[in-house]
Amino acid sequence: MNSITIDIGRDFSSVPAGRHPEDGDFSGQEFREKVLVPALEGHDLVVVVLDNTEGFGSSFLEEAFGGLIRENRMTPQFLNDHLVIQANKRSSARYRDKVVQYIATAASLAATSQASRPKFKR
Length: 122
Prior knowledge:
The chain is mostly helical. It has one domain. It contains five helices and three strands, in the order E-H-H-E-H-H-E-H. A three-stranded parallel sheet has the order 1-2-3. It starts with a strand and ends in a 9-residue tail after the last helix.
């Protein structure tokens, strides 16, 4: 299996923040577009480690992970099969739970409002 591990704190920024690039450096959109989507397109399994940061704002996490469904049209099943969110520290576990919540919410909204949109295919 072709896999990659992305440690946000080491591979992207120890202080990720904001939704969009205009909100400042190291935004959720930047992480999704420049790191996460290319990894998902090029690997069978992507493990994202949430440790080693000073924390996450909800806007960063929602844009980075909810945006996979909303903007990149990836399906919840695809993400379930190819994306693992890892939180090894107790302080990071709540962020993992938020990521799961943001993906589920984006999937629910996409199912009700955009049922006819084409789905992401690798």
